[in-house]
Amino acid sequence: MTSTVNPSTPRRTDARRTLRSVADLLDAGLVTPEQAPELEQVARQYATAIPPAFAALIETPDDPIGRQVIPDAAECHTEAVEDPDPIGDDALSPVPGIVHRYADRALLKPLLVCPLYCRFCFRREHVGPGGGVLDDAALARALDWLRTHTDIHEVVMTGGDPLMLSPRRMRAIIAALETMDHIHTIRIHTRVPVADPARLDDAMADALDTTRSMWVVAHINHARELTPQARAAIRRVQARAIPVLGQSVLLRGVNDTPDALEALLRAQVSARIRPYYLHQLDPAPGTARFHVPIREGQRLLASLRGRVTGIAWPTYVIDIPGGYGKVPIAPDYLHTGADGYLRVTAPDGAIHRLARERG
């Protein structure tokens, strides 16, 4: 949807209020009255939430920030390749709140609520205000499952966004995981540091303290998301000796140019965040407008080889539809020539033949 909102129109956003409805978006000047009927139809399927800190970054509705979070009429159109559960979470959930895809780790989803609702989310059929929090009984059952599966060594807390929990509830969950000798690593996957940085306050950062190996993985898609407030929130975590990794989704109109992707990676490194994953978009319903073909993604990433430090180089990955796991799809720099010699492509595109390997 190409917005006709006039970027010079004064914004009337309440700096204290999350935008949650078409009426809110109209009042903020982010959509037009002509768009409202179609957007009400979108709202019947998918939640909207744009916290004040994130809304303040939107310069125009179609800019790289607005595009991620402002609903679009195209979301009501589902293409043949799209799936409500594109990576097979439902089939791999032995009990509510748990997804077990890999032998040594499991996802724990204590809630299905987020600070903002990205229009490309692969869990968009499940997350929203009605998703709620696992009640005490359901959470106990999920923790019991982890307790009895001693082959699980890592728990990835996701959702929804686990930093939407209260610090008290977060401490209780981490304390329960600490009683399980086989759990040695805990990961928190979150959008909160950039979406609603004030929520990641000292109380929440303290709640993440644990005797286990704790990692925070922040979802960041554009360099402008790393505001001074977001960086301060991230530093609160880092100050407690918790490393922060970054993960991003390759998105059309957001970070699909060499300059935009380079700026994103550099911004993360400058904030002491190690870029971890660049995700190929999962084919959730109504997300086609964000799709970047894999070959284009490979060329895009290859264009940055030699241009940015290896510290900033993420692993480009795809979650195989159907729940078959995540695999790298990075550019391939090595191939075998007709003469049987290996050849490698240098960052400048030149091809070099290697000597025959020994042994």
TrEMBL record:
Q: Where is the Radical SAM core domain?
A: 100-321
PTM sites of type N6-(pyridoxal phosphate)lysine: 326
* SUPFAM superfamilies from the UniProt entry: Radical SAM enzymes
Give me the residues that bind [4Fe-4S] cluster, please.
114, 118, 121
Q: Provide this UniProt record's keywords sorted from A to Z.
A: 4Fe-4S, Iron, Iron-sulfur, Isomerase, Metal-binding, Pyridoxal phosphate, S-adenosyl-L-methionine
* InterPro entries to which the protein is assigned, alphabetical: Aldolase_TIM (IPR013785), LAM_C_dom (IPR025895), Lys_aminomutase-rel (IPR022447), Lys_aminomutase/Glu_NH3_mut (IPR003739), rSAM (IPR007197), rSAM_sf (IPR058240)
**Cited CDD domains:** Radical_SAM
Q: MF terms per GO, please?
A: 4 iron, 4 sulfur cluster binding; L-lysine 2,3-aminomutase activity; metal ion binding
* Cofactor(s) listed: [4Fe-4S] cluster; pyridoxal 5'-phosphate
Q: What class of enzyme is it?
A: isomerase
Q: What is its EC number?
A: 5.4.3.2
One matching Pfam family, short form? Answer: Radical_SAM
The UniProt entry's sequence similarity note says: Belongs to the radical SAM superfamily. KamA family.
PANTHER family documented for this protein = L-LYSINE 2,3-AMINOMUTASE, LYSINE 2,3-AMINOMUTASE-RELATED
What protein name is recorded for this chain?
L-lysine 2,3-aminomutase
Q: Could you tell me which species this protein originates from?
A: Komagataeibacter saccharivorans
Give the classification, highest ranks.
Bacteria, Pseudomonadati, Pseudomonadota, Alphaproteobacteria, Acetobacterales
- Encoding gene per record: kamA
